[in-house]
Amino acid sequence: MDSAAGSCNACGAAATALMKLSLGKDFFGRTYDRLSPSTDQSPKWYCEGCSMQKNIQRDFRDILGEFDKLAAGQHSSLSTQEEFQRASLRLREISTILNGTAGRSPFLTSVEVGQLIDRMQTATMRT
Ligand SMILES: [Zn+2]
Question: Is 112 helix (H, G, I), strand (E, B) or coil?
Fold first, then answer.
């Protein structure tokens, strides 16, 4: 393993398996450009725990961004019942992970996730 400094870019863990995180597709299946190998100018290395957390953060950000668009009356990936449902389930899953024993995330707090879940629930009730 010749991963540069040899420690996780998020938590600093050393002497553990590190992986260069290539996120590929985002939660809504869109190509995630910044971390694709050809365009990523500053690849980061994360240990297993942090790469899981990083994926969680990415999904959360995708869902938050789309929900903000939906709330503003713009076209959103969450416009369909199916996607909205899928995103709601994913948020619950994220919330469960963050509240679990392995959950402390360097990227995201369970409070932020809880707020988004509440906002989405309120939106569901209004329709
Ligand atoms: Zn780490």
Answer: helix
Q: What's the rounded Cα separation, in Å, for the pair 117 and 48?
A: 26
User: 36: CA distance to ligand 1 center in Å?
Assistant: 20
Model pLDDT for residues 79-110, shown as the tens digit of each residue: 999 999 999 999 999 999 888 866 577 888 88
Q: What is the pTM of this model?
A: 0.72
Contacts of range 5-8, beta carbons closer than 8 Å, 24 or more positions apart:
5/45, 7/45, 8/45, 8/46, 8/47, 8/50
Mean pLDDT score of the chain, rounded to an integer? 82
* E strand or H helix at 113: helix 110-126
Give the distance (Å) from ligand 1 centre to CA of residue 84.
31
* Span from the CA of 77 to the centroid of ligand 1 (angstroms): 31
Report the separation in Å between the CA atom of 106 and the middle of ligand 1, taken as the mean of its atom positions. 9
Determine the pLDDT at residue 35: 44
pLDDT at 73: 94
